[in-house]
Amino acid sequence: MIKQRAFVLGLAFAAQAVAFGPAAHGQGLRVSPQLGGSRPAARGSDANPRAADYIVAIVNSEPVTNNEVRTRMFRFEQQLSQQGTALPPRPELARQVLERLISEKAQLQLARETGVRIDETTVDQAEQNVARQNQVDVAELRRRIVADGATPAQFRDDLRNQLLLTRLRDRELESRARVTDLEVDQYIREQQGSTDSAGLEVNLAHILVAIPEGASVTQIAALQAKAQRVQERAKAGEDFARLVREFSDAPGAAATGGIVGLRPADRYPPLFVEATQSLREGGISSVVRSGAGFHVIKVVEKRHGGLPGANVVQSHARHILLRPTAQLSEAAARDKLAEFKKQIEAGQADFAQLAKDNSQDASARNGGDLGWANPGLFVPEFEDTLNALSPGQLSEPLVSRFGVHLIQLLERREASLSQREQRDLARGVLREKKLDEAYASWAQDVRGRAYVEYREPPL
User: Which of 32, 87, 224, 282 is the most exposed place for a label (fewest CB within 10 A)?
Assistant: First the structure.
């Protein structure tokens, strides 16, 4: 189950319910848990983004409506505001959003024309994964989606579309990412000789004290003083997550402890990078101001991402794999593994023996044991589920491109990478870059082959 590329566009409820990045670097349905919570108003967004509707463009025979553009703009504005990123002028943002929607529709049409299908069970699983990553059950997830102005049906449609696009792009682009040994050698030399921050990855958490639109000088001064008090308490050692819950106005901050997530430094707002450049892990920045308000930033983690550091966290897991056939449907395989899980948890069956008797891959002879695995070894849907488990815990039945799995995490450890393992990781980084380039070219080609008729501009 070597990791494959999963391209993700911003299809679901970014900053309202969940956020999908434009190209998630192999993270599959990796979702930022940004549900609920108080939010500062996004610039220029209506309280109801569905005020007036009309067709703004036709993609082949399918319309793009003003409502679609406005709703997507609303989500992007919320997301950018939460990150402290400067917003482009609204006409420019509207143009970018419209072009993205046109590209997505053309790709979705191609997926359906070429027979890519996503069944309800797979959408159910994706919805459950989102709920688990937000540390809520599905019922609570749906309640929060409704509270954020959407519907569960819309959310599930967005998940289905994302899955369609991911499968289409995997199929179309997987063969374009071969990496040679010479390329790996050159990349390693470049990384070892690099002294700049180009390969730096950081994980930051922040507290946002939002400035309301039209705030007076006196109000702004009071909010700055509030942010300064929060910064002093954080620097004195108070629990940052608790301060986030008490003070942060960032969307969904309470659920995440204010953590934005590990990503290349150039994918953070420059303001955040500059404020934390000289800080070590655990360091607290001075109060900084963005267009959204005042921020207090904590460095959660720093590492060079081009070639990961000498130490990584490895996972030791085992699984049972059932491959759907004409005689065993995907739903039946899930039911069978769910029954296995009940038996194991009740002490009525042994995982290793069930794997030997039933698992349909080479690990069966070892009781399903997959050995110690470095980050990035498994396909995203498998790795996301594995990362959410505690040692000893069993997953729910999981559908991947290989079949249906029941996974148990046995243990985790921190380990030093061998030279071979570092080469494998370097190869993976290069492969992701090649796929990014291939995707850009492929998406442009799909867009170019579509008939697009522009109507009235979006408002």
Answer: 282
